[in-house]
Amino acid sequence: MPEAYIVAALRTAGGRRGGRLAGWHPVDLAAQVLDALIERTGIDPALVEDVIMGCVSQVGEQASNVARNAVLASRLPESVPATAVDRQCGSSQQALHFAAQAVMSGTMDIVIAAGVESMTRVPMGTPSALAAKSGLGTSVSPVMQARYAGVEFSQFTGAEMLARNYALEKTQLDAFALLSHRKALAATRDGRFAGEIVPVVVRPADGSAPGEIHAIDEGIRHDATSESIAGVKLIQEGGRLTAASASQICDGASGLLVVNERGLKTLGLQPLARVHHMTVLGHDPVIMLEAPIPATLHALRRAGMKIDDIDLFEVNEAFASVPLAWLQATGADPARLNVNGGAIALGHPLGASGTRLMATLVHALGQRGKRYGLQTMCEGGGLANVTIVERL
């Protein structure tokens, strides 16, 4: 069976809600990444056979197949098809899996996996909020309600359940949050993100002429301290998590160019990494955010690997309780986890986070001369994707 290779991995720097990317229509922002993949590899854009793009809130400016609209806003020709994927926070990680499966099957040779989310222009929860306002009902059906009687499906409740079940105290969660900012700050200062970031021009909300370049993650708190993080208000009364120990609302886009051996020969490119294994797993939808743990263990078994075989891990920091519980359950080396910081500092642009994490992971493996990387993330509904890659 053919292999799947990643030959380019790029992302925008994250933008805070209402910040430096707020002036970008999400379609145009995604198109910037598509164009950058073409420009940096120098390939003929007409050779791209599909674009698979993750996006969670597919409504408003992100509606009507945001992937196809991004193609039409890019340098890619009209002949390039595209489709949008929603596996909640794992949407663009699933886009990578679909792209890899396509080239491994031999039905396609050259595919772009990407993601986009403007959480400024299309706020989180907009589809459900609009449906409720219009009297269109809820996505939780009567049969679901009967099966999970009295249950509120909430990521915030799930995050607190995870903290309690794994005996994670607020001081531990706060300390992890501070470390995320410090690692992200060090990576920025050392230029470790330079190869993965697509610089884009800031478009001021007041309509004034653009000029500044956005190339540094806006969410990193350069002045974060233990005291400042500890002082943030709890999300839930009696809980342990705060906005400081949760991922930041973020605008962003990201993308990967995925090919097989025939694609490599056609394009004349060298791969950054090979997709070694892919897993997706369902788990308890009530605690919801615990799924990366069984999914990781399942992936390692299927791949015939042990946790210590993996050199670097990217576990999405939706809440600090997620990677901390994951570390505890898997026995992974904390020094190998999110070495350049995570979503607590860099932001979590929902549908763009999957390919954002992979871009960071692939570049980090190259910079450190390491071989294997594993990426996983919690997803709404109690789901988790796991991807293991081998640097080449």
Your description of this structure?
This protein is α+β, with helices and mostly antiparallel strands and 392 residues long. The chain is 35% helix and 18% strand. The chain has helices spanning 26-41, 66-72, 91-105, 126-133, 142-147, 155-165, 170-189, 226-230, 261-267, 292-303, 321-330, 343-346, 353-368; strands spanning 5-11, 15-16, 50-54, 82-85, 110-118, 200-201, 213-214, 250-259, 273-282, 312-315, 372-379, 383-391. Strands 1, 2, 3, 4, 5, 8, 9, 10, 11 and 12 form a ten-stranded mixed beta sheet that branches. Strands 6-7 form a two-stranded antiparallel sheet. Helix 3 packs across helix 13 (353-368). The longest helix has 20 residues, at 170-189. It is globular and about 55 Å long. The mean pLDDT is 96.
Helix vs. strand class: alpha+beta
Beginning-to-end CA distance, first to last residue: 18 Å
- Helix fraction, binned, reads 25-40%
Number of helices: 13
Output mean pLDDT.
Answer: 96
Low-confidence stretches: none
Strand percent estimate: 15-25%
| DSSP strand tally | 12
Oligomer: single chain
- Spell out the helices and strands N to C: EEHEHEHEHHHHEEHEHEHEHHHEE
